[in-house]
Every structure is written in structure tokens, then in C-alpha cells.
Write the C-alpha cells for this entry.
Amino acid sequence: MKSRFVRFMKKGIFLSSFTATALFGSINNASAEITFKHTQLADNLYMIEGQGGFAGGNLALSVGSDGVIMIDNSMPNMLKKLNDQIKTLAGKPVDFLINTHIHGDHTGNNNYFGSQKDTRIIAHDKAYNFMKSQGVPTSNGVIKVEPSALPVITYNNEMSLRLNDATIQLIHVAQAHTDGDTIVVFKEQNIIHAGDIFFNGMFPFIDLAHGGSVDGYINAQKRILSLADDNTRIIPGHGPIATTKTLRNTISMIEDSKQRIQAMINKGLSQKDVLQANPLADLHKKWNWSFITTEKMTQTLYRDLSKQGREKPALKIEHKH
């Protein structure tokens, strides 16, 4: 059964929240009606997700004797409600904040948390480098951030935190959603936070403008599968909690879509020709949503597979959901 988030997106109720022109305005207007809910996944591990509207990417919170570890941190207009959740679940400040990638619906409160004396932000080297040199992608383009918003702990390939009776593995997946993505594995709890390497029940957003790629995205999802078993629970960047079965279905959809578009490119069809042919039409009902429509998914595939994807962005965004 689809989550409320997916149903809202399918209906387009929060369409303006996901367009390239009105993210923060439309979200701020509706934020009084949007709340967070939490789901306990293990003794000291919670998934936090928005309800009643768009609240940014899904978060995770680990609470224990070694401190509080949070994955991603929503958007500025949701900060008070996020802090309420943290107070309820942890009763103490965040010690480590992990950024899964650079987009503003996942890093929107970096400045606040980075300004707290107890909090240390962690991210991949490339995410740090982009945020320091350019900023964070938003609906108004890439916005410079304060020094306090920058990660202070970075890594290149993999790193581990051994906290709260858990081995927490941070694993970089290259040129996937962006070029600085992190997936987070809670090894003993058998839980994986996928960041935006996984949009559950929706066409994915593959950010070609910021280093993402179709093949890298597929490879990253397969990397998650290699770390999982049939009992693994996967927190997607957006959408409801998932299993390896739902992830496999997503991989199959993307691979099938890629093959369709590649065959048309091989025949010499232009992007206009491909869009007119609408080769993903049969996928529309199940996978289309207001930000990544069937047309936008087709455009992303065509541009990347025809090697146009890095020349100019297909979408102006903050992965603004």
C-alpha cells in the first residue's frame, strides 16, 4: 500500500513544492500542517518521516549511551518540529549528523546543527568539497552556506562508527544520485539508510548536473542489495520503509527503462523523437510523480545515455523536494 507521501505526490497535491520555482515558499505556507512521525526499527534506532505534506528526506536517529547520531536533517522550516522529535526520542543533543548528500531537503538545517557545540557533521569528501566551494543546490540555484554548515569529518571510500552498540558503516557510491552520496549501514540491526539512492515507489531523481549518472545509480542500488538480505529494512530517501524485494523491483524498472531509451538512441532518434514516442508510457501509472514525471525520467535517461547529461542540467533544482 502506498504511503501518504507517495499518494500525495501521485495526486500532485504538493506539486509546487517540487518544481524549480517555488519550493520554500509553498512548503513554508503549508508547514503548519506538516508534522513528523517516527517508527522504531530497533531498540535504539528510529526512522523519522514527514506526514501531511513534504518535510524533506527521510531521517534516521540512533540513540544510546554513546550519544545521538542523526542521518540527514530536513529543511529550515521544519527545524522546530524536528527538534521536538529529537527531544522526544533522545532527550539530548545530536552528537553526529551524517549528510547522505548535498541537496537542501537533506542538509537544510546543517547551519543550525553545525552551530551547536555538541554536533559534528559527517559527509563524503566530494559533498564537503562542493558545499565549501559552491554551496547547497536549492530552488534558487546553488546557495553559499555558512562555515558552520560544513562537515568537519569527511571520508573517501568507507568509514565506520562504533557507537551505541552498533557498527555504523558509511559507504560512498560513485556518480549515483550525485557524485558525493553516502549510504549508511547499521550492521547489527540489519538496517540501511539509502539516502536518495532509493525513491520507493517513484521514478528516481538522478541529478546529472551534480555528478549523478544512470549507470552509477543502478550500481549503487545493487551495492545496497549486496549488503542486504531478505530481512533487511531499507530507509529510502523518500517513500515508505522498504525491503530488498521493493528495491529489486526499482532496479528492474530502471534497467528496463534504460534499455528502451538506449535502443532508440542506437537507432539515431533525437530527444524530441523519443519524447514523442513516450517509450515509458506503460510505467506512468505506477512510477510517475510530480517532481520526476514520466517525461522527465525519459529526458534524464536520454541525456545521460546520449552523453548530453553533463553539458547542461535538465532540471534547475535543489533537489527540492
